[in-house]
């Protein structure tokens, strides 16, 4: 066991997906975990939301959300982990104190009424509402643009047709007047 590191078994369809996309080590053989993908993760961020209770000003974990973390996009989990790319040859070499020491996690303690936490919660709660509205607005603006282009093309075509007809009609009428003038 190493501090600030954890190993997990994650689903993968095979060795290639495990080592490439999942950044893990494919376990094979006769163990109980044979045919699974094992990944190593390091703790990169720990954020805890607290509340201060008067009159003794007792500090407690904030349980107003699902968990006592600071990020609604992680379901208010306090810990954020990052996978470490592993290969079978360096599995044990990468798990050590130098790796942990050079990748120190960030620790935050925030008050549950912190404006940034409230903003994150508000933005996260509006995400499901605003995205469809933005898509509808983009589609609407695209349709207006297409309609304007079609209207302009129709007007240019109509003007050119009328212009061609007037050139064909006007010279005859003008020629007919000149012929009648010549007869007089």
Topology:
Layout: E1 5-10, H1 15-19, E2 25-27, E3 36-53, E4 58-61, E5 79-84, H2 91-94, H3 97-102, E6 106-111, H4 115-183
Parallel strand pairs: 3-6
Antiparallel strand pairs: 1-3, 2-3, 3-4, 3-5
Structural features, described:
- This protein is of the alpha+beta class.
- The chain contains four helices and six strands, in the order E-H-E-E-E-E-H-H-E-H.
- Strands 1, 2, 3, 4, 5 and 6 form a six-stranded mixed sheet that branches.
CA-to-CA gap between the ends?
Answer: 118 Å
Total number of strands = 6
- The gross shape turns out to be flat
Share in β-strands = 15-25%
Note the run of SSEs as H and E.
Answer: EHEEEEHHEH
Radius of gyration: 36 Å
Helicity, as a percent range: 40-55%
Biggest sheet features: 6 strands, mixed
Q: Count every helix, treating DSSP H or I runs of 4 or more residues as helices.
A: 4
Q: Which structural class fits the helix and strand makeup? A: alpha+beta
Poorly predicted sequence stretches spanning 5 or more consecutive residues: none
Mean pLDDT across all residues, rounded?
A: 77
Tags for this entry?
184 residues; alpha+beta; six-stranded mixed beta sheet; 4 helices; 46% helix; flat
What's this model, at a glance?
With 184 residues, the chain is an alpha+beta fold.
């Amino acid at each position: 066991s190493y501090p600030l590191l954890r190993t997990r078994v994650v689903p993968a369809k095979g060795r290639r997906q495990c080592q490439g996309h999942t950044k893990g080590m494919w376990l094979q053989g006769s163990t109980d975990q044979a045919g699974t993908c094992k990944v190593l993760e390091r703790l990169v961020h720990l954020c805890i939301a607290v509340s201060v209770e008067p009159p003794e000003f007792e500090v407690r974990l904030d349980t107003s959300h699902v968990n006592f973390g600071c990020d609604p996009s992680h379901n208010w989990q306090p810990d954020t982990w990052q996978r470490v790319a592993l290969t079978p040859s360096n599995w044990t070499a990468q798990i050590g104190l130098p790796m942990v020491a050079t990748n120190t996690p960030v620790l935050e303690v925030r008050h549950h009424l912190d404006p940034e936490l409230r903003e994150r919660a508000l933005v996260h709660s509006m995400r499901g509402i605003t995205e469809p509205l933005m898509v509808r607005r983009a589609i609407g603006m695209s349709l207006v643009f297409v309609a304007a282009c079609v209207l302009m093309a129709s007007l240019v075509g109509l003007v050119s047709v009328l212009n061609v007809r007037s050139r064909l009609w006007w010279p005859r009428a003008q020629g007919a007047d000149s012929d009648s003038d010549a007869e007089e």
